[in-house]
Each structure stands twice: as structure tokens, then as C-alpha cells.
Amino acid sequence: MAGKLKPLDIERETKAGKYADGGGLYLIVASATAKNWAFRYWIEGKERWHGLGSFRDLSLRDARLARDAARLRVKGDRNTPGVDIVAEKRAARQRTQAAEIAAAAPTFQQCAEKYIDAQWSGWSEKHRAQWPASLKRYAYPPIGGLTIADIRPSHIYDLLAPIWIEKRETANRVRGRIETIIAKNTDINDLDFRNPAELTKQLREKLPKRPKRTVRHHPALALCLRCSRIRRLRPGGNRAQRHDIETDIGSALHVAVAAEDVGAAVADPHPTTFAAISNRKNSTFILPTYTQFKTSGSRTASNGSLH
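RESULT FIELD:
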């Protein structure tokens, strides 16, 4: 297609403006030394300007060839649909920028270590030992090298699933610590962000179902509840007397526990020991005699209280 521009016109033109060559090709002049080629097209009712390069890099002939190639991409053919080459170029530029930002962003492990260092002075020895150890064992191997933006709920599921049942408390604490570190390194104004370590319904349903906890009482608990109330009548008292009574009670419980371990019946406390305790003189504690205990034992046991 014959154009309207000539090579000599391109060299001489210094007035700012847009000069058409035909077929959507334009020479855009900003100054005597700033001249660029551009392809103008329309897609979905919107005007687009696609840069082709500087007049110093592209001759008039090369600029026309570049225009033809760009027009073919926009129009498409039987086998290839048309594309918005300006939007495509913009998306590629955004991906490049995002990759550069991600490369400069700190990893989860770096964020965690920074958080631990900031909290260290206010933590107890227990926290100082548990936080680094649990993250190093369970979190760093799968997600330590990822940035905060790259962590997905599937990563959290993968690291929690093996310990969700066998190490219930550890799993809960590890998940909570990961959630805290991620939240600490997230923009507070990012309303679209959702913490991947949050215990959502989706994550909870995917994780193995935990069995219900079974409460195992101490073997001597039933005996303790059957003992009558031990009341403190007045403050003070002789420490030696109090120690003797506590020792006798301990002996009675020890006998009961030992009997239960070998399968013996422990329906009632040892009468000799409790009778000795109840018969003490000048004690600040009172315990009924064994006879009194047997008559009131059912009522005491039903109350389930120990004073």
C-alpha cells in the first residue's frame, strides 16, 4: 500500500503532531529529535495506540511492515483469534513488575524471624523455646521459602494434616503462629486479603476429623469425693498437726490407688486411717469418724463437693 509519507519528510518534520501514513500508521513528533512510530486501531469501540519504535531504529519501510504485522494480530485469521495487543503488552509489563516485587519481598521464614526478634524481650522462656522450635520443625520446610503472597490455604492444610490428630495442641499452636506472622506482614488496608492460615470452614472440613476428647479422672478422685468435707474451723493452728493429718489422708488415698491398680475394690476408704485422723485432738481440721462417714457417705458423694 502506497503511503503518504516520504523518507525526506520524516527527516525534516519538526513540528509537534501526528502525521498519518495510511493503514493506521502514524509518525508522532514531539520535537526535532523525538519522533516515534505508532499503530492506531480500534477494538470493542475503544481507540488504541500501539508503539512500534523510534524513527531512528525503524525506517519508513520497516515501520510499514511492523504496522502490517500488528494489524494482522489485532484482526486475526481463521485459525487465530484477534487480540488487543496494547492490553496484552500492558499485562506482560504488570507480570514483570509483580515478579520483580515478589523477588524483593521477604520470605515467610525471614518474616517469622523478624517477628520473633521483635517479641523476644517480652516473652517467657517457654515462648522463647516453643516459637522457633515449632516453626522450624513444621512451618519452615513447606512454606519457609515462600513469600507471604505466595502462601495458599493448601500449603497450610499440607503441613497441618499429618499432626492434626496425633499432636492436637501442637497443630493448633503452629497454625495460630503462622496466622499471626502472615497478619503482621499484610497491608491493613487490603480488604480483599484473606489470611490463608485462618481456620475457615473450608480448612476445618478438609482436615481429618478429630475424635472427641475422653476425660480420664485420677483414680483417687472417686475416693476424694466420698470423703466427708474437711473444714478449716479457724485460721492459724499448729503446722505439725496439719502436716500429720495431710500425711494420713495421703496414706489413705495411696492405699486406695494401689488397690485400684491391682483390681481390688475401693468402695470405702480405709477405716483405720480415717478413724485415726478424725480422733485427733486440738486439730484445726475435723473429719467425721468412720461410722459417721458411712452413714453420711451417700449424701456427701451425691453432693460431689470437697471443702
